[in-house]
Amino acid sequence: MSAQQSDTNESKYAVSARKFHSNVKRDLNDDELRNNFRGAMDYLMDKRKSAFDDSDELATLRKQCKLIKQRCLLKLPYLLEQLEEKLLSNGIKVHWAETINDANEIIAQLIAEKNGKTVVKGKSMVSEETALNDYLEARDIECLESDMGEYIVQLAHQHPSHIIMPAIHQNKKQVADLFVKKIEGFEHTTDVDKLIGEGRRVLREKFCNADVGISGVNFAIAETGTLCLVENEGNGRMCTTVPNLHIAITGIEKVVEFLDDVPPLLSLLTRSATGQIISTYFNMISSPRKDGEKDGPEEVHLVLLDNGRSQAFADPELRQTLQCIRCGACMNHCPVYTRIGGHAYGTVYPGPIGKIVSPHMLGLEATKDLPTASTLCGACAEVCPVEIPIPKLLIRLRKESVETKHSGNKVMKGEGSGRKKSEALIWKGWSLIHRHPVLYKTFIWIACRFRGLLPNRLGNWTTVRTAPKLAPKTLHERIKERRSKTKNTDGN
């Protein structure tokens, strides 16, 4: 692949994120999309609520899992080294990728070494992050998504609109119409069981013939060198056992210290994500196929991706972003996400978590509009299973977007990119006026007298609000006049 093609891959989501406002207008005008999301989000909120019928247990579990994630993040450099040592001793090869291009090149090289031409891929948001499908397709390698939601999205040439349910933006009629166009011999039906059955029929054949299986990782256990996958369809198990080569890819923040850390995290993940007490499948992979074993891959590789995570890790406050276990609960309860859907954000990770994760991956220049796309109502923080203070982090990112540090020690890529000279001058003038009483009184007197000249539109503020109207006289003037009238009345 040429350097130009690589750059295009790398900036795919950054380009889309810059179009946030136009994306929002497009999706708000799509009534079918809004109905799809409203129904789906109401369903998921009810499922989560029913899964946590004991509020005391939920509070205790959230606190426990928050402390687990914070402990693991504090030890992250050490745990990553321990994980690598354990994986290598188990026969799993480890690869480090700083950027998405690094990760894609590593995976493509591993496939090329085996002369691989066909890949089946389990659900993996990190591979979406790297735009791996596009990268492999450009190298004439067929990469088929095996998760039903991801398969639907792939057929539609889209990217997931939700991190747990990728095709939640489509209803069964839309899926049926898509299958008619893309699957030869498929007869139109809106029967959900038949739709799923048709998808499985196509995928089953691919599993048997695939050269390589690719998966994500939910938890990587440093203590034992074990990769854990949580799923409901069994496709992840097929991807990791049928092909002779299994490549797993995950972010560096997914490492946990002990095996005992996983059960509470798993309990919160499944109940927060889909309202299930436990997922249908929980896979633990600790080695390639051993002598005497009848199934499993001959080789297992793990690609550990940074892609901005070290930047978040370096700042104690922003580090809380890495506590996320990718349950999607914050999206399901967000009043903004439920109305505009996931594609409007233009990023791999949409919704509240996407607003605080994406700036580290794509830079604030491309994502400066995302932290402001929030009501700061706090619903996301209330349901986050690991108690990430999302509203607080959004405010921090808003600040980073408009502040420029002159020391040269920048916290984030694209810092200050949202700063506008005209806006900065206005605020400097506001500060000057409010620091000097004489200037303040003079300005207010003039503004009240010439209030009729004030514009009816004040930028984005008045797109959903009425412009404020100044009173003809200030409060001080009105009190002075009232006192004067009272004095005159008493004197008479």
Explained architecture:
This protein is α/β, with parallel strands linked by helices and 492 residues long. Among the domains are: 72-312, NagB/RpiA/CoA transferase-like (Rossmann fold, 3-Layer(aba) Sandwich), CATH 3.40.50.10420; 421-491, no CATH class. It is 51% helix and 10% strand. It has 24 helices and 10 strands. The protein has helices at residues 3-10, 12-17, 20-28, 31-51, 55-74, 76-90, 100-113, 125-129, 132-137, 148-155, 172-182, 192-209, 235-241, 262-273, 309-314, 329-332, 337-340, 351-362, 364-367, 379-383, 390-402, 421-435, 437-449, 475-491, and strands at 93-97, 118-121, 142-145, 212-215, 219-221, 226-231, 245-251, 255-256, 281-285, 299-305. It has a 6-stranded parallel sheet with strand order 1-10-7-4-2-3, with helices on both faces. Strands 8-5-6-9 form a 4-stranded mixed sheet. A hairpin with a 4-residue loop joins β5 and β6 (226-231). α18 (351-362) runs parallel beside α21 (390-402) and α22 packs across α23 (437-449). The radius of gyration is 27 Å and the shape is elongated.
Helix content: 40-55%
For the sheet with most strands, the description reads: 6 strands, parallel
How would you sum up the global shape? elongated
Q: Which residues sit in consecutive blocks of at least 5 with pLDDT less than 50?
A: 1-10
CATH fold label of the domain at 72-312: Rossmann fold
Average of pLDDT: 90
Structural class: alpha/beta
Key terms:
492 residues, alpha/beta, Rossmann fold, 6-stranded parallel beta sheet, 4-stranded mixed beta sheet, 24 helices, 10% strand
Question: Could you give a quick summary of the protein structure above?
Answer:
By secondary structure, the chain is of the alpha/beta class. 51% of the residues lie in helices and 10% in strands.
